[in-house]
Amino acid sequence: MTKQDAQEAKMLRKVIYAASIGNFVEWFDFALYGFLATEIATNFFPSNDPTAGLLKTFAAFAVAFALRPIGGAYFGALGDRIGRKRTLAITILLMAGSTVALGILPTHATIGIVAPILLVLIRCVQGFSTGGEYAGACAFVLEHSRTDKRAWYSSFLPVSTFTAFGAAGIVSFTCSGALGAASMTEWGWRLPFLIAAPLGVCGFYIRQKLDETPDFQQVSDNEAVASAPVREALRSHGRSMAKLGLFICTTALSFYMFTTYMTTYLKVTAGHNASTTLLSNVLALLFAAALCPAVGRISDRVGRRMTMFTAAGLLVVGGLPAFLLAGSSGLAMAIVGQLLLALGAVSCNVVTAVMLVELFPTRVRYTASALTYNLAYAVFGGTAPFIATFLIGATGDPLAPAYYLVLASVVALVAAWRIPETSRRSLSDPNPAFHPGAMSS
Known about the structure:
The chain has 19 helices and no strands. It has helices at residues 3-35, 37-44, 50-82, 84-103, 108-111, 114-130, 134-142, 150-154, 156-188, 190-194, 196-208, 214-221, 229-269, 274-302, 304-326, 331-358, 362-381, 384-395, 400-417. It starts with a helix and ends in a 24-residue tail after the last helix. Residues 430-441 have low confidence and may be disordered.
């Protein structure tokens, strides 16, 4: 390795770390909300019916996702006008600040109906700010990366995502074990949310020290920055956004079924105790994080279309058996079921991270990818725990969420068939496929 290669590798490690820490903060908060859903329901949505309280809690969870597309449009356009670096510095401060605010929020017992209202408002700020985080982080990493390793480099963003969920599980489990159920419900649930403060400050500092991406800098230097990124993205790349969005719907659904809803399913539906649930989920999340780079390497070899077909196929074939196994008695079966679900969820997330960048041109990349990603996550991600809980309650069938996931995965297979191969496409050089309307056929 030459000295220049070593310097580039060092720089890229810093870029990946800077992008990943913000992504970690984003998903750490969302994971905590899922892990602590029962405690949040007790403190902010008190009810004689536990299911009703959970549904209200998950509804507040979904409300945050309704703001994500708005945040995606705002921060996406901002990132395409002023750059990736400055925009990502703003989003991490907003995310960390709103998470800390949740940790110090008075409960229903203290301020009454104002408490759940403020909870929803804080979730809206979180959703708005996170709308600009993931797509921007993907662009930030890949616009610094080598063409032949883009999926591998971008796979470290899903690594930080699954690690954040695992860390949230460990923190929740540790606090619960150390404080006891009563103290955890009364005040201990606040402690994990307060961790976001130092993480946010650290992430902001690191991002401020890095340079803007070469691709955006080239667009800026050539005075080719889009004046109306949202309008241009929708007009010139709307069909491509729709096709990718249909695939990402399954990415979002499988991700939240695996990371958030599964803990509730194991406790409420399968009857596992809290210790078994958290332990099995954390082990599955660590497995998912370790699997991401391997899937990234495979995608760089076989291409994006094959990766998308495989990811959706794994969910079609494995969705029902995963829920059957997870719903069985014993820790081993709970883990095996989650690992089976992880195969498809991880593959979807890894290929989504790279497709968000490769499918769109630099001048509207942040906007197009943020809108596509956040619309899909708003419709299918944020609603996943709520709909899964509702389906079981309405049908009486504990496997209803699995059928829902399989159906969405079939749609993803069809969408993948309509998306072009992008693995060898240049992100910065002029490309006919990037001309207005060329990718909408």
